[in-house]
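Researcher: Let's run the pair from yesterday's discussion. Sequence first, then tokens, for each.
Model: Starting with the first of the pair.
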Amino acid sequence: MKKDLNSNTDIKITLLALGCSKNLIDCENMSTELRNAGYDVINDVEASDIVVINTCGFIESAKKEAIDAILDCADYKVPNGNVKKIIVSGCLSQRYPEDILKELPEVDAVLGTAHYGDIVDVVARLVSEIGSETKDKINLTSGVGGFSHLVKDRDLSTEAYAWLKIGEGCRHRCSFCAIPLIRGTFVSRPMEDILEEAKLIAAKGVKEIVLAAQDTTNYGIELYNERSLSKLLRKLSEIDGIEMIRVMYGYMDGITPELIEEMANNPKVAHYLDIPIQHGSDRILKAMYRRDNAELITSRLEMIRKAMPDCIIRTTVMVGFPGETEEDFQTLKDNLRKWKFDRLGCFIFSPEEGTPAYDMPDQVDVETKQRRYDEIYELQKEISAEQSQKRLGTVTRVNICSVSDDGIFYIGRSYGESPEVDPVIYIASQEEELKIGDFVEVKIVDCSDDYDMTAVTI
């Protein structure tokens, strides 16, 4: 039976965010637009009339996760369930719109990375078709990226922190990466827009903001003709209510003395950096079209740690890049031992259509890639444990994010733990009940776990 089109509140919509924090921000913006249009946005696929799946399409594992999510939602589609329409948005849609609509007939619409702002119109069109024989598919995938869909006063997914997008796209052209094809070249978001949104976030009682862009250190480079992240940090720190500002997704060549000085001297900026280096062999870095080399990485790390001895540094590396020899891999391991990153994520190279590395010669076999991946994680487990022990007995401020499933501990993060990608701190409170989003001082009393730590309030 066709729904009452005069009542958007009758339409229940669930949005699923896959992939990175930037996708989550885009999903939060779509959620806000739909709520403002009167739709009932819930978090229950089975009970929804429409499901929006905001996808990642960066690497093979992300594509598989997205396709699995689409198929899972399709299981709830009429006549087997309550779901009547499925919308797929984001990076996978941008890359493979025709394939999605052809191979996944359960999908009714695809929205690319420049069309998040069309979500209300697309939903209205799909709602008008519920109960009718109309089965036209919607394909909105022209253009890439942009900020037009951003709603400054948006729904937030958590009470403890908020991601804040400061840039879109990427100006780097790494030979393995499809991000510029999906999101476009790097553009900086105007500083006044960022500051306005940060003030609205603070007004909601959220005390930690996490800056997101494909390369935050490039902020301002094309808008203000200079790297302007340090200036942005200073302006953000002047906002009442904001107690911690975290920088994610930087590049080594953008870690300038000015940025380090601002981070070291600004008490609201976390002594934390996420700098994906991708490899430790100069030969492979050159083949990846990276501007970094081992000497630059070493000098920047020395500069950071001299100014901020307590700085927690996270990185990402890739194994199995075409032409990676055992010697290259050993060089990577040797340098990781020297550089001693506190946190590390590892990816296995997957050939992405449209990138130079897709059909490079000397592709590494699957078994070798997996072995190298496993070796990197075993090595990093030792390094992370060694680095964590340095924090035993120290006092730090933590942001209370949740409560453990057994109800015994609070779960929090200090300056050294970024949401979603890093370990957490389990906190035994000796005080009254703590509130989600509050900052409290704790003493770290146990670092024996491979990654997570335990602390007590003081």
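Model: Moving on to the second of the pair.
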Amino acid sequence: MTIPDAISSKIELQSITTQRPIRSVYLLSLGCAKNLVDSESMSQILRDNGLIMTAKPETANVIVVNTCGFIEPAKKEAIDQILRMADFKKPNGHADYLIVAGCLSQRYAQDILSQMPEVNAVLGTADYDRIFSVIQLLDQEKIGSTGQLTTLPGPGGSLNHLSTPRIPSTPQAYAYIKVAEGCSNHCTYCAIPGIRGPFISRPFEDLIAEATRLSQLGYGELILIAQDTTRYGLDLYGIRRLPELIRQICLIPAVRMVRILYVYNDGLTDEMIETMATEPKVAHYLDLPIQHASDSILSSMNRRDSQENIRQTISRLRQAMPDLILRSTVLVGFPGETAADFDILKNFIREIEFDRLGCFVFSAEEGTPAFDLKPKVRQSTAQARMNQIMKIQQQISLKSNQKRLNQINWVTLESVDEDGVFYKGRSYAEAPEVDPVILVAASSDLIQVGQTVQIRVVDVGEYELTGVTLE
């Protein structure tokens, strides 16, 4: 998604007199919500230094692509977008510079510089706070034959850009708060520790200050994210402090809801579950990626889980919060996954009945232990397994949604659908981007985007819900 004009409408941009021309910047953010927070921070740094953000690449002097490079499809999308943005450079376009940041540049900096002469600079995942300095360097450099510059120091390790008070690019209803950078779990299939470095928690006080500021700006729903959100505090304080952080954020008067994404099973302690169950502002919603249910595959993945302890944790969660909406992600086609392993996974999904489930095919990533693992699963077999999982989940999702028929929920209206007939909204049960929206028919002309209203669910499908506002 872009860092759009919506941001500019929330603040008054002021030009700062400098010795260089004032520049306009187009910033394209790819990948996950964690990447989006990094993009928002870069955007704020650029605005603070007098640059103007534009939602149109054709009007920008500088184009920045903040890339994802987690798995093969994400890498392909990033390369496609870099090449598309290169078309907006001079002499055919308006832009002077094209800068590539994020995970792809961290993994493949030299490849980008050698094979994409259109790119002027690459910026590593620890160096987002240097985005303005990079543009200054490009302005000052007498660009040589390749016109390329790299400022890449190494993976992860810096939280500097996150200390910038940013204006979120999300709708006014919600904002993400990134509680930590990096990851220390070292799952064998995952490249993130090599890209972003070890898990580093942000200071507790900084997060409370950010939550206070964002809520005062009108972002009533705060979504806490990290690669492993439940690990928060373990590196910095020696204990898991996410429950305490949640309780303190809930004390902020302007906060309407706190949502927690990307949790690990071993971080769902009794204290964490009790906090979720007893704090009225906490959404009874969790994203718990289990990846698999076969103990042998979980072991090969270097996951700290077994099928039984996952089952026990989910039982504890649902006992404490009967209205819990549980989302998960699984991975099929991992090296060594047999038909028996896959049957275990299917049976577990049928048993647990996740309300929402995503399924991905294993992608062999360079630099990860799983890259050389054997025996490999044929791509066609892995794809067929993914299709089977999603077919099973389709019926489970329908069953889950049918339980919500005639329920009354508070829904925040975030936009209007393309036909102008329904509002699009979310309740506690829908996380942004990954879950379906609720289509809402308004019973009054006074209702408008941005309001939080009570609705009754009147129709459901496998992946959609429709409601009407109460009189």
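Researcher: Give me one sentence on the second I can quote.
Model: The chain is about 35% helix and 20% strand.
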